[in-house]
Write a structure and sequence with these properties.
single chain, alpha/beta, 5 helices, 14 strands, rod-shaped
């Protein structure tokens, strides 16, 4: 199951209380205070881990609590610190404060971490309250209260390449041919309910991650057809591969379909229009593929590649174009 947004309640552990005690050893009258400090409360921490692929494991676990610090003991024994509560998330997760609405951390890399609720401070034992005029203090401190926070975790997939196109444009099939991913493939709209990721290896020198973005429809920028859920994953891709189906099942104009998706991207985030884009005509074995490619070439003013995931036609050339675009971005960076 894929899940890309979840709301959690986080409560850090309270700090342990300090201890009020006195030395009671033989031959040591008036031994003085020796109460130890309490332990610090455990934090609630969000940690990015590359081995986690979605937020589905958080279903049914909405409350996260840090462990309470242990109380201090006599003989100046400090209480044990409470264990932290660790929330594992995939890289590419945004950690947001639900009530205040601001971003706490963008977890871009594996190993990134953020403390969302800090554990309570340790309480001091009575040894800290001794003075020359107050040599037998019975005062001690209670541990501090742990912080609480409501957070929202929102996953935006991080991929090198994003496959765009209308439903049934051939994105899932292409992903399965380029990588070892096994997305669901069928001839009906919205086969892809959530993004699929695949790793493409080219020899020993090159590899890149491809995300199959579910098909976009008109009004996607306003949330139609789960548009927001899909478009947000496009933001984290470096290169876009736009697949144009020459003979859509719904009898729509393929050129207009291309324009429509570009417009939805512009309305959602204008900066996406500056992202490197490779446009290809899919299903080149169909008779309409060549005429559609010619019309699109006339409109855009540059050659358009035709590919076929069924026959494998021009897939190697497409991979080479993707690698070239990624290398250009690395040079510019």
């Amino acid at each position: 199951m894929f899940l890309d947004r979840v709301d959690l309640y986080c409560k850090a552990g309270d700090g342990g209380d300090g201890c009020a005690s006195f030395r009671r050893e033989a031959h040591t009258p008036r031994g003085g205070p020796n109460g130890g400090d309490g332990g610090k409360g455990g934090d609630v921490v969000v940690l990015a881990d590359v081995n986690v692929s979605s937020l589905a494991h958080l279903i049914g676990h909405k409350h996260w609590n840090g462990e309470k610090g242990r109380n201090g003991q006599s003989s100046q024994k400090t209480g044990k610190n409470g264990e932290d509560a660790i929330i594992m998330v995939p890289p590419g997760t945004l950690v947001l404060d639900t009530k205040r609405g601001h971003l706490l951390r963008d977890m871009k890399e594996s190993g990134d971490r953020v403390v969302v609720a800090k554990g309570g401070n340790r309480g001091r034992g009575n040894q800290h309250f001794a003075t020359p005029t107050h040599q037998a203090p019975r005062e001690f401190e209670h541990g501090g209260e742990g912080e609480t926070r409501d957070i929202s975790l929102e996953l935006k997939l991080i991929a090198d390449v994003g496959l765009l196109g209308k439903p049934n444009a051939g994105k899932s099939t292409l992903l399965s041919r380029l990588s070892k991913a096994h997305p669901e493939i069928a001839a009906y709209p919205f086969t892809t309910k959530y993004p699929n990721l695949g790793l493409v290896r080219v020899g020993f020198d090159h590899q890149f991650v491809v995300a199959d973005i579910p098909g976009l429809i008109e009004g996607a920028h306003a949330g139609v057809g789960l548009g927001h859920e899909f478009l947000k994953h496009v933001e984290r891709t470096r290169v876009l591969v736009h697949l144009v189906e020459p003979s859509p099942m719904d009898q729509t104009d393929p050129i207009q379909n291309y324009r429509q998706i570009r417009e939805e991207m512009r309305l959602y985030d204008a900066s996406l229009m500056e992202r490197p884009e490779i446009i290809v005509i899919t299903k080149s074995e169909l008779p309409d593929a060549a005429p559609v490619a010619e019309l699109l070439e006339e409109e855009l003013g540059h050659p358009i590649m035709q590919i076929s995931s069924a026959t494998g036609s021009n897939l190697e050339q497409l991979v080479r174009m993707i690698i070239d675009e990624l290398q250009k971005l690395e040079v510019e960076a």
